[in-house]
Amino acid sequence: SSEHTLDRDCTTLSRHVLQQLQSFGPEAQDLSALMNRIALAGKLIARHLSRAGLVADTLGFTGKTNVQGEDVKKMDVFANDVFISVFKQSGLVCRLASEEMDKPYYIPENCPIGRYTLLYDPIDGSSNVDINLNVGSIFAIRRQTDDDLDQSASDLLTHGRDQLAAGYILYGPTTVLVYSIGNGVHSFTLDPSLGEFILTAENIQVPQHGPTYSVNEGNFWQWEESIRDFTRYVHRHEGYSSRYSGALVGDFHRILMQGGVFLYPGTKKKPEGKLRLLYETAPLAFLIEQAGGSASTGTERLLDVVPTELHQRTPLVIGSTEDVSLVESFIQERL
Ligand code: AHM
Ligand code: MG
């Protein structure tokens, strides 16, 4: 096999979505079009990231804070706007909601026909941008039932089982897109010379157990005793390895591919932890269940959580079923 022969059959993302959808109904064409737009957003963001520091306004802060009181980076704003402009042209999405926007963003010209909402975190792990480490984008597509444009978006406040599709884009040494439309989890790698996402892993299954535990142990001082019990357990048993990059998408991707558990537990002061349900934890929970793993708040299946507000946070325990159960068992013991 020389470099001139294809070592894969070169299934592109758009072809794959269409193949996946053969058994689906009228939504098939829509989901396919939506995935193509998400892929385009991913390419535009990957291109911008690859020039960070070389062109103006790519690194550092804007000087503003978002609705959650976090400092906003230039890359957050850029990526947030990329998704908006890409979906303005799609016709299918009437509303977008993201980590960077206080309220949902409506595209009135799409709303008569746009039956979907895109939920997204444009740059996950943005503290990694300035030091040239991996970041990601997380997305979920939900059916939109509320079209009165009253901005309440109360129809979004349902459990994560209502997601039609979910996935992420990981901007690492290569750009990888992972998605599920409820029919397995599939991964694609961007071939920059073709500008296409090419299928690299189909029907990914997470191992039932893995060596990695991924958690910010700097928070030990403010954890509940149960989470401390878990970390003491892994410190005292052979076969565990600690990995934590500061970008959820990257840490999750390792666990999806190799097994283990990622945790962002609540703390005594913030029992809900840091990560947001609708565009961070629920999409990844959808993926891990599709891959045969589990996602939990520690006491409840994550996809069962019904939020009361758009930017609601949840604790997260996600990964291999056995490892998630182990964490849950420590929590049960202390309830
Ligand atoms: P962000 O979306 O504002 O970047 O925040 C989410 C990130 C996750 O990617 C990561 O897992 C976590 O925050 C890291 O937080 P901490 O620095 O508290 O460990
Ligand atoms: Mg985030």
Strand count: 15
Judging from the principal axes of the Cα atoms, what is the shape?
globular
Q: What is the count of helical runs? A: 7
Radius of gyration: 19 Å
Rounded average pLDDT: 92
Q: What share of the residues does DSSP label as strand, in percent? A: 15-25%
* Strand line-up across the major sheet: 4-3-5-6-7-8-9-10
Gap from first CA to last CA: 58 Å
Say which molecules are bound, naming each kind only once: 2,5-anhydro-1,6-di-O-phosphono-D-mannitol, magnesium ion
Helix content: 25-40%
Structural class: alpha+beta
* Element string (H = helix, E = strand): HHEEHEEEEEEEEEHEHEHEEH
Major β-sheet annotation: 8 strands, mixed
**Which runs of at least 5 residues are low in confidence (pLDDT < 50)?**
none
Explain what this protein looks like in three dimensions:
The chain is α+β, with helices and mostly antiparallel strands and 335 residues long. It has 7 helices and 15 strands. The termini are far apart. It binds 2,5-anhydro-1,6-di-O-phosphono-D-mannitol (AHM) and magnesium ion.
